[in-house]
Amino acid sequence: MKKLILLRHGQSIWNLENRFTGWHDVDLSDQGRTEAVAAGQLMADAGLKPDIAYTSVLTRAIRTAFMGLDSLGRLWIPLIKDWRLNERHYGALTGLNKAETAEQYGDEQVHIWRRSFATPPPPLDRDDARHPCNDPRYAGLDPASLPATESLEDTLDRVLPYWQSQLAPALADCSTMLIAAHGNSLRALVKHLEGLSDEAITGVEIATGDPLVYELDDGLSVERKYSLRERS
Ligand SMILES: O=C(O)[C@H](O)COP(=O)(O)O
């Protein structure tokens, strides 16, 4: 049996300020740091021993992985960072306050942008400083693969090939894997792992700092799923 732990980063400073974040690189808030340490303790209490960990190239997820693994006593395991685990790109909404945006465009439109499967927020212009083409961390990538905005479907379209080419083969070779990532890159993975419909995934929320454990058979089919915070 394999164990896959999906961990959304702890609360970020922009989560606290209720701002659309996406690929903007904001750090954890004090509460987020506490959540990251607590996530490691929950994993320790559950006897989980990740052999390998993956995260995005965004500080809030990297720091959550580090702080969680540190409190678990397993800071020494391999930690691989990849942009394909980044949060979904929030396009021209990046940086805006979510409540103010709902006042301007209406709750329904904001809900569609946030939770519909296929409707992306308005895109960024390529010369906008928030466009990933203007961020040196993506300089080595084909500019055509860098998004100006993303729906959850677009996010799944980059997460799934990464799952298939890197994560699933690595999981087949180990017993326990930790993925510290983001609300929507993890929702994309959950959709795939659980075989959820485009409609069903719209109702799935993932809390910050709460390790979700999937027990998988050797063919990587899900046998059981539970939240460590709920079980504690
Ligand atoms: O990118 C963000 O703003 C959040 O981390 C996730 O946002 P959401 O709850 O609107 O999907």
TrEMBL record:
Q: Supply the SMART domains for this chain.
A: PGAM
Per the Swiss-Prot or TrEMBL record, the active site comprises H9, E87
Spell out the reaction equation it catalyses: (2R)-2-phosphoglycerate = (2R)-3-phosphoglycerate
Which residues does the UniProt site feature Transition state stabilizer point to? Answer: H182
Supply the InterPro entries for this chain: His_Pase_superF_clade-1, His_PPase_superfam, PG/BPGM_mutase_AS, Phosphogly_mut1
Q: Which UniProt keywords apply?
A: Gluconeogenesis, Glycolysis, Isomerase
Which biological pathway? Carbohydrate degradation; glycolysis; pyruvate from D-glyceraldehyde 3-phosphate: step 3/5
Amino acids binding substrate? 8-15, 21-22, 60, 87-90, 98, 114-115, 183-184
Q: Which domain of life is it from?
A: Bacteria
Q: Name one GO molecular function term.
A: phosphoglycerate mutase activity
Might you give the EC number(s) for this enzyme? 5.4.2.11
- What NCBIfam families does its record include? pgm_1, PRK14115.1
Describe the protein's quaternary organization and the partners it interacts with: Homodimer.
Function comment? Catalyzes the interconversion of 2-phosphoglycerate and 3-phosphoglycerate.
Q: What is this protein identified as? A: 2,3-bisphosphoglycerate-dependent phosphoglycerate mutase
Source species, please? Spiribacter pallidus
Underlying gene: gpmA
